[in-house]
Design a protein that fits this description.
Layout (H helix, E strand, L loop, with lengths): L3 E3 L1 H4 L16 E2 L5 E2 L1 H4 L7 H10 L3 E5 L22 H8 L2 E6 L12 E5 L4 H20 L4 H25 L5 H24 L1 H17 L7 H33 L7 H27 L11
Parallel strand pairs: 1-5, 4-6
Antiparallel strand pairs: 2-3, 5-6
Helix pairs in contact: 3-5, 5-8, 6-7, 7-8, 7-9, 7-10, 8-9, 8-10, 9-10
């Protein structure tokens, strides 16, 4: 089965706080400075699959199954099917394209769910259930300290991307900046776009890697119920693909950094400073992503695309 796991941050358009805005005092900080309440996750490690599902439901999370097009043995026959009157068709369709799990927040209007919701392929396993629950816990912890609606981040990213691409196209057509205002708009729209892209990389591909690293560690230290060698083999493939995806996205940002820096001169010190800050952040995140990938124990090197 082709593996696709879709966390809330991947498709999410809107988040609102479901807890009181305050520091997450009982959180653990993991890779990429992400916070998570591990004491809520660790009880699941010794539960069987049905107990895990019950545990999620006890926290107000709705759990549904989705038909497995490969017709593998059903492991959660007691779960109701996710139907189109509950879940929008486009989110069910991803399971026919290889998805095996999806966390959906109730504050994402696109999802159209009333409660936090997890969709699972009906042949699901213990590893996948905990993986999707970890997405919920990351969102829960983030909202304790930052209740910024992610829809605003997404909207600003789309606007900045559109502005940047338009400004860059004008530069290409003219072979230079049209005027100082065009130069400033080009650099500042890129800076905003790059900041938003870094935010989403941490919330999407790199969160996937973070969760998989955590589960791989538990596999060694806790011997969780239901975890096995096949889970590790699948995790190997998934960690590589998500890490590779992040590297490619960050590489493209850094390429624009280099190209834009060449269009500026010493008189543009303020713009150079803005550009330098976000480009340094992208470079550090790219290096940190490699470090985290290598810390999972995988030996296959990440590829540098040209």
């Amino acid at each position: 089965m082709k593996l696709i796991r879709l966390g809330a941050a991947v498709l999410s358009l809107l988040f609102t706080a479901s807890v009181t805005l305050a520091d997450c005092l009982d959180c653990t900080t993991v890779d990429f400075d992400k916070q998570i309440q591990l004491h809520l996750l660790t009880p699941m490690l010794n539960m069987n699959l049905q107990q895990k599902i019950t545990y999620l439901q006890s926290q107000g999370i709705d759990v549904f199954r989705v038909e497995d097009t490969e017709k593998l043995p059903v492991t959660v026959p007691y779960l109701p099917y996710a139907t189109e009157d509950i879940i929008p068709k486009k989110f069910l369709k991803v399971f026919s394209e290889g998805a095996i799990g999806l966390y959906m927040t109730e504050s994402n209007y696109a999802y159209g769910v009333k409660n936090p919701t997890i969709l699972l392929i009906e042949s699901t396993d213990d590893w996948t259930v905990i993986h999707e629950y970890a997405h919920y816990l990351f969102d829960r912890a983030r909202m304790m300290t930052d209740n910024t609606r992610e829809s605003l981040h997404l909207m600003h990213t789309e606007d900045a991307q559109e502005d940047f691409f338009e400004a860059k196209e004008i530069y290409r057509n003219w072979g230079q900046y049209r005027d100082d205002d065009h130069k400033r708009r080009t650099i500042q729209s890129f800076v905003l776009y790059a900041k938003m892209q870094l935010f989403f990389e941490r919330s999407a591909s790199l969160e996937e890697t973070t969760i998989e690293k955590l589960l791989r560690k538990y596999h060694v230290t806790h011997k969780p119920h239901g975890f096995g060698h096949k889970d590790i083999e699948r995790s190997d493939r998934y960690v590589f693909s998500t890490s590779q995806k992040a590297q490619e996205s960050l590489r493209l940002i850094l390429e624009d950094c280099v190209d834009l820096a060449k269009t500026l001169n010493a008189q543009d010190k303020d713009l150079l400073k803005e550009l330098s800050v976000v480009c340094s952040q992208a470079d550090l995140l790219k290096k940190d992503a490699v470090r985290v990938y290598e810390s999972t124990g995988l030996k296959k090197p990440l590829e540098e695309s040209n």
